[in-house]
Design goal:
By secondary structure, the protein is α+β, with helices and mostly antiparallel strands. The protein is built from 5 helices and 6 strands.
Length: 150
């Protein structure tokens, strides 16, 4: 099964129509975790050349649909545009380089979601915890880069 067929199958299993636009976005995220909408746009294009004539607003609509259907996950590290990934449903966390912006996945280190316990529950039923670690990656350290100033 090729990636386009796989994308179509995923969409149908979630009860979504398998449109060329949705398949293109899912395919653009394969092997490209933590992509911004702009990066996805660069891979699939917008306008007449894009699958089904996908517009910029259409791209954002597709991203919203796929996020709501839990086929993709949207993360929003501070100071960074929203980023999208295919890894969903496992409550993993992220490590962000303050110099180059590279993002790496970090598996949940404690167990099942939410992976953390609150000192006080404040009346909430917690089902997820989102942790972001910040630092400078090995590549940036080797080249003498430092954290970007906001």
């Amino acid at each position: 099964m090729d990636t386009e067929e796989l994308a179509g199958d995923l969409l149908r299993r979630k009860g979504l129509r398998s449109t060329s636009q949705r398949r293109a976005v899912l395919t653009a995220l394969l092997g490209n975790p933590h992509s911004t909408a702009s990066e996805i746009e660069g891979r699939i294009g917008v306008g007449r050349a894009a699958p089904g004539g996908l517009s910029r607003q259409g791209l954002y609509n597709v991203l919203e649909d796929l996020t709501r259907a839990e086929l993709i996950r949207c993360i929003e590290p501070a100071g960074s545009p929203a980023r999208y990934e295919l890894r969903v449903g496992d409550n993993h966390h992220h490590l962000v380089c303050r110099s180059c912006g590279r993002i790496e996945d970090v598996d949940c280190t404690v167990g099942r979601a939410p992976c953390l316990d609150l000192a006080e529950d404040k009346g909430f039923t917690v089902d997820e915890a989102e942790i972001t670690w910040w630092g400078v990656c090995g590549d940036c350290r080797r080249f003498g880069a430092t954290a970007r100033t906001p």
